[in-house]
# Entry
Amino acid sequence: MAVFQEEIHIDRSPADVWSVVGDVANIDVWLPFITEARLEGDYRLCQAGENGGLRERILSVDGTAMRTEYTILEAPMPIEFIHAGIQVCAEDGGSRVVWDTTVTPDGLVEMFSPIYQEGLYNLKTQLES
# Structure
């Protein structure tokens, strides 16, 4: 089991960042890997372009703590276990966004880490423009 995180500073208020990150149905707006997303109850169904679909369970969306948590139940890659969370907090007049993940098998870190980095950079670019 591997544990890793990606993070980024965004020059916008935590409330502004949370308004995007906390809208879990629209992750496709800022995460380029996901080309379509929709909610069905507690489940998020995502399309990852030609890579296939993902079925995720949204475990929590906490507006007070500005944190979401989810697990991936079905994916085109061999995931045994994944639990991820995205946290928004105040930092230096802006926000820090931290995406923490526990995943098995360990080799999936090499796949997810660049996807998360690209998504966080895209989120920053969108919010700071």
Remarks:
- The helical segments are 14-21, 109-128.
- The chain has a mean pLDDT of 97.
